[in-house]
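Hey, can you fold this one?
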Amino acid sequence: MGVKSPYWKWWVCCLLLCASTINYMDRMTLASVSRRMIDELHLSKADYGMVEQYFGYAFACGAILFGLIVDKVSTRWLYPTILMLWSLMGILTGFAGDTGLIGSGLAAIWSPLQGITGWSQVLGSLLLCRTMLGFFESGHWPCGLQTTQRLLDPKDWAFGNSVLQSGVSIGAIITPFIVAAMLTSEPGSWRLPFVVVGLVGLVWVAAWIITVRDTPAVTNAGDGQPKLPWRSSVASLLADHRFWLLTIVVCCINGTWSMYRVWLPLALQDKTGLAFTEAQTLGRILPAYYLLTDIGCLAAGAATIALHKRGASILNARRWVFTICSLMVMPAMILPLLGRGEISIPGVPGLYAAMGVLALMAAGSLGVFPCYYAFTQDLSKQHIGLVTGLLSFVAWVIPSSLQKPLGAHIDKTGSYDLAFQVGSFPMIFAAILLWLFWDLGWFRGKRRAAHA
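Sure. Predicted structure:
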């Protein structure tokens, strides 16, 4: 592949990890300040859910566009350009609803649409910033997955993807600390973290350009082999049953992950639930939760390699790890009940039981992603951007559509229980589908037997 040394390729993977970290820092800042922002901007939970909904819609549209671009354009310049643009959108989020020059500019941009949508300038400017953030952030995954696919051997894809994905956890771990350090009792103190986090991306841009400047095998689109035309590639994907299987799988796993990402910070501070303070939530619970997601993600990638070395096929190693992680998420359905003491585990205090369940769902909810990405890389070696884009579109459109209705339900009932109940089952359903339908060996065996 033209890489410089066996160690160099893992340095590139570390850069991918850092890109994922920055990607998620921009995303998690909103969740970390959501309570203050909702109160100060006078938003409802349905408004907050709508902001996340449109973020997801934009992410879905951007995933297809950047998925197509990354198959044709060098990531040497595409990757840092995308990262700079989403960082800018993150910075501008800190000025949404502000009366200063930048905030007024955002409001002016939204003004022509206000009469059509009926949304206030405050909500509209916030929607504008987060929608564009979602659009540009979507380019990260096609670029990152194309890089790991070209850089690593297939047996190492799951572990390389776990390094890439673990940046999500690192970003989620450190962001609450950064936010908590900047929050004061003064109104509007929630705005500064958006600016600071957005500026972090500039350092990564410089590091990426320096690292890949002499490595065309990693950054150039294509691998020197003739490619099918775009239409033929799409037709080939749509004819592959595994593509349709993965559309269901990714909706299941991303739906669960997104639901907990959006609503967990608010649910932890819910007075009818666990009732932690803002300081406890940002300074202890969320960092610990996302630390465990990182451990689960890296452990999942390492476990696939270990199972393969012990004799399991690469396919079955991925499926076993995916299934175990899915089972770890299922107890999330009883988390609010444990927190309120409505059910109990004999000999275990309710708070400790709730924290144990939270730890399990943390490790399992991100551990499925490295395996999923490895499955996507099996579909196409030449058009990984196209595969990633199409699947990401489905993964974000469908789960994102649930965010606003869920917010309206929370406004009406004051309870976050439904988020935990709905999110606990999709992953195990996806695991069952992967066992039954990925290679269709059992189905083909029955057909052969019937013909015989």
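The chain has one domain: 6-451. Let me know if you want another pass with a different chain boundary.
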